[in-house]
Amino acid sequence: MRTVLLTGFEPFDQDLINPSWEAVRRLDGVLLAQDVRIVARQLPCAFATAVTGLKALLEAYRPHLVIATGLGPGRSDISIERVAINLNDARIPDNLGEQPIDTPVVPDGPAAYFSTLPIKAMVRALREAGIPASVSQTAGTFVCNQVFYSLQHALAGSGVRGGFIHVPFLPEQVAQAGPGQSSMALAVQVDALRIAALTAWNTQLDLAETGGQVS
Prior knowledge:
By secondary structure, the chain is α/β, with parallel strands linked by helices. It is built from six helices and eleven strands. Helix content is about 30%, strand content about 25%. The strands form three sheets. A seven-stranded mixed β-sheet has the order 2-3-1-4-11-5-10, with helices on both faces. The radius of gyration is 16 Å and the shape is globular.
């Protein structure tokens, strides 16, 4: 049985839930094909432990494809990340109270890594399913970017493809926070991640179509 590893984060910044984990955990054990199974696991939202947890999962499951996910506050769609940068610059403390500023994810590592997923094919598949999606040009500088960069660093040269997806708030989170925030229903997020994973598994050569931004 071949494995597709999906990760989501624990809640952070006083939230009681994290939609990335709520969506990912509902896909644990789902078959993408007869011999391809999703394994979903949670990562801590802390600079000191997230990468250790990620590396332990890579070692334990030896996945054939990896998609890490996280909450993107303010995002209005499923955001397929293009690039991870070698920079930690935390706007808020993580769940262990740490707030690194202008530190590298990997000392002496490359400035950036690109996703090795077919990001544009994934966006098209999601849009065709009626789910808002786009290519994102930044994964931020918090733990999400740290995990994305560390994942690509760990997989470099291995032939295993990997990348990162940001998901929006859930409606109940926005209802508590007040107006002005975008959200997406949990059932839609679950379906979106399943479609994204299936497309990534089945697509070796990405589409040659625009996914850029003017600014």
